[in-house]
Recover the amino acids of this structure.
């Protein structure tokens, strides 16, 4: 068989003797041809990794021990062993913004599914904003914080953070670190890390503490007033 490469169908290629059955028997089963089709466009899809030579492969093929990029850049040892990085993007201040994580050398986002206050607390702790009184607000699709790149993390009902973890890597999730096609970038999560008692739960706790202190002080004042009048 001989093709120019421009044919639209394999039948348009030239065959030495298309009808000769005898020639076909010269090929055994071990001589079957195989092909791998690769996309080499410069623009890759959101879920794809851009190989150093311009090729696009699925991000889930990064650091899996197989050379999916012709140049082997998907198995780069320094990128594969790089520690997890985190940042807040497009926020009004450094403590706010879309949660972005760098995994295997690629920046991506976090899906809002099952992402709540506990998960946000871990994010804030990783960013150095964590303390006993830190408050994390979560924006689940209420504001447009659409990012780009792979959706690296999606929590499930059974796999979440307890809130006390030092890193998102310590939270258990079966879907952690696999690009999730069920989440779109419209679901990218954003947080605000604040210091102090300014969320509802902590506010009510602190106000009840203040009320108790006032009651104690009120009785003290009354006692000293009575003591002063009597003397
Ligand atoms: Ca690979
Ligand atoms: Ca969602």
């Amino acid at each position: 068989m001989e093709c120019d490469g421009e044919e639209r169908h394999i039948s348009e290629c030239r065959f030495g003797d298309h009808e000769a059955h005898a020639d076909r028997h010269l090929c055994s089963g071990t001589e079957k041809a195989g092909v791998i089709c690769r996309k080499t466009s410069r623009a890759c899809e959101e879920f794809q990794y851009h190989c150093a030579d311009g090729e696009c492969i699925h991000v889930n093929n990064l650091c899996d021990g197989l050379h999916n990029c012709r140049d082997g850049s998907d198995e780069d040892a320094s990128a594969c062993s790089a520690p997890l990085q985190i940042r807040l993007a497009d926020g009004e201040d450094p403590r706010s913004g879309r949660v972005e994580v760098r995994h295997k050398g690629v920046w991506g986002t976090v899906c809002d599914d099952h992402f709540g206050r506990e998960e946000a607390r871990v994010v804030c702790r990783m960013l150095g904003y964590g303390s006993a009184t830190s408050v994390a607000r979560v924006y689940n699709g209420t504001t447009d914080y659409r990012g780009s790149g792979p959706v690296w993390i999606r929590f499930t009902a059974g796999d979440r953070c307890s809130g006390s973890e030092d890193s998102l890597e310590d939270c258990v999730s079966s879907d952690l670190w696999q690009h999730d096609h069920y989440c779109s970038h419209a679901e990218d999560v954003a947080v605000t890390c604040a210091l102090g008692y300014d969320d509802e739960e902590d506010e009510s706790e602190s106000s009840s503490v203040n009320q108790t202190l006032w009651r104690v002080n009120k009785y003290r004042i009354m006692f000293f007033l009575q003591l002063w009048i009597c003397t």
Q: What stands out?
A: The radius of gyration is 30 Å. The pocket of calcium ion (ligand 2) is lined by residues 112-113, 187 (CB under 6 Å). Residues 83 and 91 are 24 Å apart (CA to CA).
